[in-house]
Here is the input.
Amino acid sequence: MDIARYTALWNQISMRVDHIEYTMLEQNKRLSKYEMPLHGYIYVTGGSGQLVLDDYVCRIEPFHLLHAGKGMKLSLRPGAGEEGIACYLIFYRPNGEWEERQALPDDLTLLRTRYHLQPEQPLVMRDRILHMYDSLRTGDALHLYRVHALFGQMMYEILHQLGNEDQQHMLDPVAQAMRYMEEHYTDPCTMDELADRLGCSTRHLSRLFRKQGIGQSPSSYLLHLRMERACELLTVSRLSVQEIARSVGYEDVYHFSRMFKKYSGLAPGLYRQQQRRPNMPSGKSDFSIAAIGNDVYIDNNSQKEKSSGGSHMMYNYSRRSAVWMLLLSFSLLLGACSSAAPNTNSNATSGNESVQSATAENGMRTIQHDLGSTDVKENPERIVVLEQGFTQTVAALKVKPVGVADDNKPERFPQDTLSYIEGYTSVGTRSEPNLEVIRTLKPDLIIADTSRHTNVYDQLSDIAPTIVFKNDTANYDEIVQSTEQIGLALGKEQDVQTLLNDHKQQMETLRQAVQQGQSVLIIAPDEEESNSFQVRTTSSFHGSFLAAAGLDYALKDDAEVSQLMTTEQLMAIDPQHLLILINEDNDSVLDAQKDNPLWNQLQAVQHGQAHEVELATWSRQRSLPALNNIMNEAAGYF
Here is the structure.
């Protein structure tokens, strides 16, 4: 293909995206001789198999992109042993005047050219397509313009890559991760989500960063991007610290301030004083366009199923914050008025007062959550839950969800939970829930996770009232708080108070049973390196739970729930107890390390206080019911 002529054609003729289709072929199913109604692209997001386009046959895998001309016959077949093939079909046509003209340039035949490539930046390409898919469904003029802008960006990257076809483009996970973080540092983003998008584990991604000599872990690289941007905004703008925190991906301004001081050595306000330019004009009108974000086309609140990214985050979040402040002020006013009145019910508990204040006169209940407040009907019946820990809580409150994000691995749920929720519809994975399936379930309440689903919150809210709490990155106190709010949202006020009281009693029993102040670490063997371990920190759920039980959790970290450490680094901490996370089908870590002299110097190993525990219950299951099931086990260790 003549790339120069092809590029000139795209410059000469304006194109528009006509429609986008999502196709999921299950195992042993196939798409046969589908005639392309328009020119378009096939972009594979999952699975692998064989693609046939007229007489052209090729193997396709995730991130492959293929262009097909109008009228070509397309066939897809999943490979042997594959769960299926997932792909998007992006159809486009000449725009406006070109569509109506009888005569088109001779070069227009180039649009029928077939070509196949692997995008240099597949995560970025994937997000472009998912944003277009979502915006087309919205259908208003602004979102249609956004589709046009995103398609232009997508075509620039394709044409640029076609023009450099002599260059070998490898799908380098490190380069992809760095590019993705550079474009999405404004969004809440966990390393688990990023690694999942790249099709690898968090540990493997960290190992690749080390091998390539980046000098930083993935999480450190993201922190560096955010803090450098924050330094710039503090210097050149008069945005508030809270606004700057949100613009670099931090919802909690206090957490941002702590991280900024740790990074720069100064609190944000003091840093601004030292860096302020003497001739800077006053007022907020001086902030740069860059303060909105790197990519002005990406809307933080427009994401389809799996994507993230955005420029309108500050505006939308500020609007929710303003509503929240008005509600808070109104609540305080009501509280002041009620306190002046005689107390006619001296037996009322503070918990009941909280429940009463949450119930509106119209039969709706206002639930406070991480992204604001949401009105939920008093007794919702069709619940969709997008996080495993929340599913355990819902089941413990005797509510059967109609939909659950089960990662297509229901066996990961505790047996009692799985038995109770039997009959639910799977809505896909926790990190990538299928919004179309959720929509078909017609829920009246969706319970989502802050770190995984913030960027699809608006889309979820369009389907049903949605409440969002931390689970994936939550600590013990945050799970306690979210459990109470979930109980209120479900209309299970008494049941959730019973659950919380029972848990409180069990925690008190555990505190009395353990010897207070003993040091402990929870570790997991690294998948790639035999003498390295992922070590949970005080920010992790189970680590903070042990601290709440009166133990001295030995690795303090306010930012990350896990750190990668060598055996030598473990020796520097040398806790009295080790809890070693393993899957049931994994080999024993204690057996694997028995000939390691450094391992054998750990006091926990020497004194028989290194215990292997189930990864599912001591890491993956983040809920109070899960903790209740391991209380006796914990007491036996300490």
Notes: The two ends are 70 Å apart (CA to CA). The first strand starts at residue 15 and ends at 26.
